[in-house]
UniProtKB/TrEMBL annotation, chain A:
This is Elongator complex protein 6. Belongs to the ELP6 family. It comes from Papaver nudicaule (Iceland poppy). GO terms for cellular component: elongator holoenzyme complex. Pfam families: ELP6. Transmembrane segments: none annotated. Pathway: tRNA modification; 5-methoxycarbonylmethyl-2-thiouridine-tRNA biosynthesis. It comes from the Eukaryota.
Automatic annotation (TrEMBL), chain B:
InterPro entries: Elp5 (IPR019519), P-loop_NTPase (IPR027417). GO terms for cellular component: cytosol; elongator holoenzyme complex; nucleus. Keywords: Cytoplasm, Nucleus, tRNA processing. This is Elongator complex protein 5. Pathway: tRNA modification; 5-methoxycarbonylmethyl-2-thiouridine-tRNA biosynthesis. Belongs to the ELP5 family. Residues 345-354 have a biased composition (Basic and acidic residues). GO terms for biological process: tRNA wobble uridine modification. One of its GO terms (molecular function) is tRNA binding. It comes from the Eukaryota.
Amino acid sequence: MDRFVNLLDETLVHIPSSKGRVILIEDQVETSGDFVLHHLIKRSLSTESSEIVIFVALSKTFSHYDRILRKLRENGKFVFIDMLKLECPDGDEGNGVGGGLMDLYRKIQKAVEVNASTLPEQSKCVTIMMDDLSLLEVAAKGSSTYVLDFLHYCHTLTLENGCSLVVLNHNDIYSSNTVPTLILQMEYLADLIVMTEPLVTASSFVQLTVLNKGTTDEQGSSRRKLHNFHFKVKENIVEYFYPGSRA
Amino acid sequence: MAETICRALRDGSLAGEHAPALTIKDSIPSPFGFDAFTHFLCSLSSNILAAKSQSQGIVLIAFTKSPSFYYDLLKSRGIDASSTSKWLRILDCYSDPLGWRDGVGVNGISSTETVCKNVRDLDGLFSEILRLGKEMVGSSKARFSVAIDSITVMLRHAALSCVSGLINNLRSHDNVSCVFWLIHSDLHEVRTIAVLEYMSSMVASLEPMNVAAKEQRSDSESIFSLKQYSRKGKFHLRLKRRNGRVKVMSEEFHVEQAGIKFAVYSVTNEIVSQSLIPKVQFNLQLSEKERSDRENVVLPFEHQEIGKTSEIYDGRRSLSGYATDLITTSASVAEKRHSEADIVGKGEIHYLRDSDDEEMPDSDEDPDDDLDI
């Protein structure tokens, strides 16, 4: 199992999970990108890194993630913010849509501040994860502007508190005629983009593309790289392999 | 060419004219606009520090990066960051653009930063820019530059008319030396980009090297469709002169660790010739030796009398020319040619007729006359 997992890890390992990183996972309806998210949660909570994960759940329940993480010998801390019933108030009452997202942001900010203070300064590492950005758009009455404002604020958190931000979104739900602002904006914002897409030829395999935009890190090295490999999700594990290396 | 932009930003505006304005635009296939933005920012900064520029300071409106990022950037490019309070003001629209943040303020506020908590109010933003600029340069005559790191974000918060109004006000203000900004062209309607381009005297656009990749934009897989994912690209500049003349220039760029580098268009030709010419068995290109040999060939119509000045016939015979002509009789011409050929080492052409069949090559007779059809 290790050998297969390593392939995805290899491409992700270049991201110092510490400061100000934005990872965007783009998936399609045939090929769910959930397993990448699961992988990243496990990686953050593994014995070596022991980070704090603040999880904003928009699509799946706590028991779902609990089942996935049960086998894991947790070392880090998993903070679950249940937003399954999130619905922003209408424009007339209260602060409107923006107000609803502002409340959510403040919740995250508070969680980050409370938890980051428990960590020692050197190993300060908080990851904010969101499992379906499109549902946030739904909650915001379809206004991508508010969602982008919200993401911007999450981005400011990444710089100050040594957080990274992991967001999943679907890339086939935006019409190609209109400008797909939200997903494109996310692509500009992200440092690393992971995309899953089906293969036309082999139905059992799925293609995974990782683009590391590699903004220069502290060492001054910049790795702008495009990785491409296939994977197969099995009962308990996910197999990753290079294209053509498996029948 | 990127040098042209740096110079234009350095020289600033003429009295009674609008300040020069630069639009930098990019798109997802080649998202290096920010690298170009920082390049011009750093170039202007070093010009200001060397007192070569008209403007005496920069007001930077930061939407996409935090002020600390810019300090680190300037430091990494070897620009003295300790004196920033004299020539740099950052209007921080990044940390808390909508006033959502409660409790403690942003840490590390220095004298050079101001946090803007309501970016929707562009009038307030405008007066804040002027306040910061005037406070920085001091005297009423001195000018400062304005840099906006993302019009894209500004347009998310405010209408196009308000943004263009702000830019116009800045350009026409007496204390503003130049204005430049970055925009992601694929996040806006075409007309939005056009409006901003109308208001700028220079438009720099960054495009991917291979045009094919650009055409694939309609696909949903945009950013991944680039097989040759490259840090190189084309840099186009459209320059509007005061008299209305428009100049278009192209260059190529390469994004490196130390920043963006611009180079003259050379590799492109190679790429074009490599990709357009079909693979053939024979050689279409010349080697270096073949090229130099070809250049050394003296063509028949060229003056071959080496050592003499070439004389161009102007319709009359000069007296000296007439004299020499008299001396060189027809008999001596052949002889002279012989000796000249020996000196220069050039070859001669001897024509030996093969057979008598060709005896009357120029005859008017019809060669097929005897055919009996």
